[in-house]
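Lab manual, section 2.4: Encoding a predicted structure.

Procedure: take the sequence of the chain (314 residues), apply the prediction step described in section 2.3, and record the output as structure tokens. A sample record is shown.
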Amino acid sequence: MTAVLRDMQADDLPMVLSWRNSERVRMNMYTTHLISEEEHRRWWDNQSGNEQTRLLIAEIDSEAVGVVTFTHYTGPDGTASWAFYTGDKAPRGAGSQMEVAALEYAFDNLKLRKLECEVLDFNMPVVNLHLRYGFSVEGLFREAHLREDGAHDVYRLAMLASDWSRRVAPMLRKHKGGRLGLSGKTFSKTVILDRDKVLAFVEATGDKNPVHLDEEAARALGFKGCIAHGMLSGSFFSALFANDFPGPGTIYLSQSLEFTAPVPVGGEMEVSIRVLSHIGRRMRVETRVECGGKCCVAGQAELLAPKGLTLEIG
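Recorded output:
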């Protein structure tokens, strides 16, 4: 199954309007109202002749399955923003195929230097889809968009032409089915965060904050007892990467961490990772620490897998 992009035609407008007005599509857009035929026609008249816009229909086996748009195109070696949505009868996996077709169009046809997109915070499946195909999160704009159901954060993602040519395109050529590496796979281990580990961390770092060592001090600050250092909890990702997956020789490139709940000293933690993207040797993974049914540490890491490591394609 492969998606092919063609120019949108005036004859496509009724079909596109029906897709765009479906609740499934509207509720993931900046504007959620039902679009009238008049408004739709104005959009077409304004954008179809705009040199900075490309309006495209995605087809699979000669059947229309969705819409892909490029806007704010500044020309070869420039930038553009893109968006897409699938039609009501699109087959399973059409979104992934449209993503691949859009990337090929952006970098091989439009000759972009950088491709950008924005996704509202509740649409994490699309954020993860972009990550799986090599996009990077460049920022989170907090409460940047206000609509009827409240204020929402906006994820800003992008891909550079160098990312495309060096990493993404070679992997897509290698795996014609469109699935890249171990995306979606999960790995975890259980760790008891006992006092000995806390004392070893204190010795290594010099962090002697009494909330980690003194029961009375911890209770005075509103905790039930001593809590572990947040960085100690997060450090177990490094051990998981080195010892379990991807394994010895892994290079830790970056890590974001958010400490959402304390881990009590003596608590049993589940340290887990989920692969968001795997392109060549580079991996982006979601990282989590859970204790007592709560997420205590959350973030993302970027890794370079060991040279020569053979990873099965699931």
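Check your result against the sample. Residues 94-109 form the longest helix (16 residues).
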